[in-house]
Design a protein that fits this description.
alpha+beta, 54% helix
């Protein structure tokens, strides 16, 4: 017969054992061909950044060569990288997005 204390303890131990899935940074890489306006549009449309956030990230990528667009679970990060590549190719730009473990 359970008095409720054992059940709570068992649920608590199980919860502690559950690990968050790993997160991945999605990175944009600077190139000499993709326009700044296109990068800002990608950041707004794909990564849901405000115009000011998108501009700040774009300038960081432009000045440093690489910048983080966001941190996501693996499947979402992969989808965002694929979406950036698809949109960039359709627009005729070589914009590169990659992901790495956060």
């Amino acid at each position: 017969m359970s008095n409720g204390l054992i059940d709570i303890k068992e649920r608590h131990e199980t919860k502690d054992e559950i690990k968050e899935p790993p997160k991945y940074k999605v990175l944009l890489h600077n190139d000499d061909y993709t326009t700044m306006d296109f990068v800002v549009k990608i950041l707004e449309d794909v990564f849901h950044k405000t115009p000011s956030e998108a501009t700040a990230i774009m300038l960081h990528v432009h000045n440093k060569g690489i910048g983080v667009c966001g941190i996501y679970p693996a499947e979402i990060a992969e989808t965002k990288v694929d979406t950036v590549h698809k949109l960039a190719r359709e627009a005729g730009f070589p914009l590169l997005a990659t992901m790495e473990r956060a």
